[in-house]
Amino acid sequence: MEEVKIVNKKYFQLTQNDNEVDIQIYGDITSWEWYDSDVSSYTLSKQIEGLECDKINVYINSYGGEVAEGLAIYNQLKRHKAKVKTVCDGFACSAASVIFMAGDERVMSTASLLMIHNAWSHVSGNANELRKQADDLDKITQASINAYMQEVNITEEELKQMLDNETWITPQEAIEKGFITAIVNEKEAEKVSQSVKKSLMEIITSFQKCNDDDKKKKCETDDEKDEDSDDNDNIDNDNNKDEKLEEHTKCSYFYVLKQKFEKKEADNNGDIK
User: I need a labelling partner for 170 at 20 to 30 A (CA). Which of 30, 98, 211, 259 fits?
Assistant: First the structure.
């Protein structure tokens, strides 16, 4: 059986199944991780850098965020020796669209959108400072343009016009202009995700079994425990408290995921609960 490894961070999820890794980026691309869904380049790049795999699948649903953070994640993915596949699960906007361009294979479903625009910022100061900020923003935008131009089949002038217009890009437009390499419809997208789903379900079942076994052992231990158990037993229990609490939390989380998957499958089969 293939070894499955999961890294759950509050700002992204990374799942490794043998030589293939899945990364979900669902949230803002920011250096400040305020919310659970926020993604920082520092932590994610560190995870990417340490990956030993042949393929990395990056699933994106994000309104974007800081240009510097997006460029850092983009460059980290481009440097990795593995083949990178990026998938737009919903929106890949602004800085998230730059990350999306890091894929050797770039895929959109028929129900997804890209959005590109020029870099912008909140500024204050005198006329000279404002003029300098405008010049700086042009240079910052050019860094993103360079990433897009690695893959698109339009001229840089056309691309700049799209950025000026803050353009939303449909899958058909994206494939015509070279932003993506393939479009999948909903049924095909479901087939693509089946292997990931199967692996996750195996992990969920495994964690549940561990949880059930732990509960069984705990009951047996409680039955055998003497009322006058010595202090050493209490010390051992205290030392293991944090470990068991963490494992229980994981099991509970995966149990909820399993319920969601089962409900989705039942709905797809017409068995509405």
Answer: 30
Is residue 231's pLDDT more than 90? no
- Domain interval for residue 42: 4-192
Do 206 and 248 reside in the same domain of the chain? yes
Is 199 among the residues known to form the active site?
A: no
Is position 80 annotated as part of the catalytic site? no
| Residue pair 113/169 in contact by the 8 Å Cβ criterion | yes
Q: Closest Cα partner for 120 from 95, 153, 148, 92?
A: 95
Q: What is the DSSP letter of 246?
A: H
> What is Dmax (Cα atoms) for the chain?
82
pLDDT digits (tens, 9 = 90+) for 161-184: 999 999 999 999 999 999 999 999
Q: For residue 138, give both structure tokens.
A: 């042009």
Catalytic site residue from 40, 41, 117, 199: 117
| CA dihedral over 75, 80, 84, 86, signed as positive or negative | negative
Q: Which of 94, 109, 112, 144 is catalytic?
A: 94
> What pTM value is reported for the model?
0.62
Task: Domain count for the chain, please give it.
Answer: 2
Angle at which helix 41-49 crosses helix 67-79, to 10 degrees, equals 0
Among 18-32, 183-197, 227-241, the minimum mean pLDDT is found in: 227-241
8 Å CB contact between 93 and 166 = no
What is the b/e burial string over 103-115, where b = at least 16 CB atoms within 10 angstroms of the residue's CB? beebbbbeebbbb
pLDDT of 237 higher than 60: no
